[in-house]
Amino acid sequence: MMGFTFGQPLWLWALLLPPVCAGLYLWNSKRRRQILGQVVSPRLRGQLVANVSHTKRRLRFGLFLLALGLLIVALAQPRRGFIFEEATMRGR
Where would you tag: which of 2, 28, 49, 63 has the fewest CB atoms within 10 A of its CB? Predict the structure, then answer.
C-alpha cells in the first residue's frame, strides 16, 4: 500500500511562518514609503530612488519565502510508501 506521511509532522505548524513574514514585509514596505515621504521632498524622491528595483526586491523576497517553506517541509521528513517484509526469527 502506498501512502504519504511525515516523520515529524509537528514541523508543519511552522508553515504559518511564511505568511507572517509576508505580512511583515508588506507592512514594512508601506512604512518605508511613509517615512520616505516625510523625509524627502516629492521633487527629489524620483532621483533618489531611481536605482532601486522594486521588482528584484519582491522577487528576492518571494524566493526567500519559497525556500523557507520548502525547508520546513523537508524538516517534517516526508515519507512515501512502505513495504511489508516478513521477518523470520531464530531462537526464542
Answer: 2
d(CA 58, CA 20): 16
Contact 16, 68 (CB under 8 A): no
Rounded CA-CA distance 20/78 in Å is 24
DSSP state of 16: G
Q: State pLDDT tens for residues 15-33.
A: 999 999 999 999 999 998 8
Which of 3, 17, 4, 7 lies closest to 69 in space, CA to CA? 17
pLDDT 10s digits, 49-77: 778 888 999 999 999 999 999 999 999 99
pTM over 0.85: no
d(CA 88, CA 84): 13
**Contact in structure between 2 and 81 (CB atoms under 8 Å):** yes
